[in-house]
Specification:
Distance between the termini: 87 Å
Strand order of the largest sheet: 5-4-6-7
Number of domains: 2
Oligomer: single chain
Number of helices: 24
Helix content: 55-70%
Radius of gyration: 25 Å
Shape: globular
Strand content: 5-15%
Low-confidence stretches: 1-7
Number of strands: 7
């Protein structure tokens, strides 16, 4: 009875402050111990949001915030910020995104691969005129050199219809709208007092907005995770058609697997307690639901295996692993680093938690309140949301690469952000007035401000990647059919993307320079570029020192 009374009263100020302080510790640890994971001002920026919450709460004390807000408000917010995030960037921030878009264009043309024009790259060598990072190159069964993205096909399949229409960005916008709609339905099922507030908090979270300004794979798995979890709750509540909810849950896990295999496995395993563990009010759906879920996910698993066979020639050799074996990066013994199991677990966990602490909701340590809320809500779903939220960062802590720092939050754990949002309000709905009124409002204001502040880093990277194109287009008198050599340097190989064949006779063509003038000229001749005006792009330390010089 004492526990019930405590639950009814809700958490007090001291416990809430302790959890918030505990959640802030990983942010400080990462800031001090892992250079580059967080930028200099990130921790202090997130620290300033809590005093803002206090001030806002005091200001609105005589005028309690209206708990109900219209759903169009988070929808409008996510449409505006997602659109602005995409429209302001001259190109993608990462090579991963370029690879997804590249493969989507190939799918949109009705093909699986693209034939390579000119010399193909030998094993382990990336010094090829048109080599793009994250793209696999090999000879097919007919001996023809082909190219395709190293990633699983799910993300590119989602983008492909919109690439066919010439507006790939709409795929991301649609995913953002689905996130808001599904989170609203989940908030209502959770019994949250103001079900439009969690979507608004999500739509103004800096981590969410930064990732939704990209074509990263996590953009297309978050809606599936929310949909699968909604089906899980419907199964436990005996709401809707049992068979179809179970099949939809399996299909959601299967889609995640087709985009991000490790995340799909973690999501599926974490849903098992929700299907098997009884609640106080209802028995669990049981093994019959698991069988239907497997049937729902099976087509996606079969599709992934068939895709492996068509692209790599082996049923169980993924395109991702095949690329790692061929192009690396490699350790000192020559083994590929870019596969799972090469990470340092403890530092990996700290990095993930540290980014959560700072980047989620824009208030330092607020993610800890969310994890607490999911733990206290485990009777509702058998603990599945809690397991998903902690399982994904644990799994990816064994990966050697922590995720791109430009996105602020733990990129590989992006699917957890919807569950964290539900967990926050599961706590705040029973918290004292200051927390209930001030914290959500401060988080929305701080989140937008933090996003605008942090977005400039994405712009700088995109401008660096687009520097050769921007510089060439700004030069007067440069012939329209010029060939521009990209420098043979590590920085250029990472940031500058060559043109995609076939090459137009009326547009600039960007290709990588090879070691030695003779090799470069032979490569240009094999690609049909011999005889065109030839220039070299010189990459400086800053854009002011970039230049283009005539070679012939």
């Amino acid at each position: 009875m004492l526990v019930s009374m405590e639950e009814h009263r809700g958490p007090g100020h001291i416990r809430l402050l302790c959890v918030l302080a505990l959640g802030a510790l990983p942010g400080f640890l990462v800031w001090r111990l892992s250079e580059g994971v967080l930028q200099g001002g990130d921790v202090f920026f997130a620290m300033g949001a809590f005093p803002l919450a206090l001030l806002l709460s005091l200001f609105f004390l005589p005028f309690p915030l209206k708990p109900q807000i219209p759903l169009w408000l988070p929808l409008l917010s996510v449409v505006i910020f997602t659109s602005l995030g995409h429209l302001r960037l001259p190109t993608s921030v990462t090579n991963d995104e370029e690879a997804y878009i590249y493969q989507a264009e190939i799918f949109a043309s009705g093909r699986l691969t693209e034939e390579i024009v000119g010399p193909a790259c030998p094993d382990g060598v990336s010094h090829c005129p048109t080599h793009r990072r994250q793209l696999m190159e090999r000879k097919n069964e007919d001996g023809i050199s082909v190219r395709y993205a190293k990633y699983p096909p799910g993300v590119s399949l989602a983008i492909a219809p919109f690439s066919f229409l010439g507006i790939p960005f709409l795929a991301v916008l649609l995913a953002s709208i689905l996130d808001i709609w599904l989170l609203t339905k989940l908030a209502r099922r959770f019994g949250i007092a103001a079900p439009a507030w969690p979507p608004l908090l999500l739509a103004t979270t800096p981590f969410f907005l930064l990732v939704q300004s990209s074509f990263q794979s996590e953009v297309f798995t978050l809606p599936a995770a929310l949909l699968g979890y909604l089906c899980l709750l419907r199964l436990r509540d005996k709401n809707g058609t049992f068979k179809w909810n179970a099949i939809a849950l399996g299909a959601a896990a299967g889609w995640i697997f087709l985009c991000r295999p490790l995340t799909g496995v973690v999501f599926g395993v974490a849903c098992l307690p929700g299907l098997l563990r009884n609640s106080e009010s209802n028995p669990a759906p049981g093994w019959r639901a698991i069988i239907y879920s497997i049937l729902g996910g099976l087509p996606f698993l079969v599709g992934a295996i068939i895709y492996n066979r068509l692209q790599t020639g082996e049923w169980l050799l993924s395109t991702y692993h095949a690329y790692a074996l061929r192009f690396g990066p490699f350790d000192q013994e020559g083994a590929p680093l870019d596969i799972y199991g090469n990470g340092e677990f403890i530092s990996g966990v700290v990095r993930q938690l540290g980014r959560w602490s700072v980047g989620v909701f824009g208030i330092l340590g607020m993610a800890a309140l969310a994890i607490w809320g999911l733990w206290k809500s485990r009777a509702r779903d058998g603990g599945s949301a809690f397991l998903i939220t902690i399982g994904i960062p644990i799994a990816y802590s064994f990966h050697w690469y922590p995720g791109h720092w430009a996105y602020l939050g733990p990129l590989y754990c992006f699917e957890t952000i919807g569950f964290l949002t539900l967990g926050v309000f599961a706590i705040l709905d029973r918290a004292p007035g200051f927390w209930r009124r001030g914290l959500p409002l401060a988080a929305t204001i701080a989140g937008i401000t933090f996003f605008v502040h942090r977005y400039r880093l994405s712009e700088e990277i995109a401008e660096l990647r687009n520097a050769p194109v921007a510089f060439a287009e700004s030069m007067e008198g440069l012939p329209a059919n010029s060939v521009i050599l990209l420098p043979l340097s590590r920085q250029s190989a990472k940031y500058n993307t060559p043109s995609k064949p076939p090459f137009s006779a009326k547009e600039f063509v960007y290709v990588r320079e090879l070691p030695g003038e003779r090799q470069t000229r032979l490569a240009l001749k094999s690609m049909g570029l011999d005889g065109r005006p030839l220039y070299r792009f010189n990459l400086g330390g800053t854009r002011e020192f970039d230049s283009i010089t005539l070679v012939r």
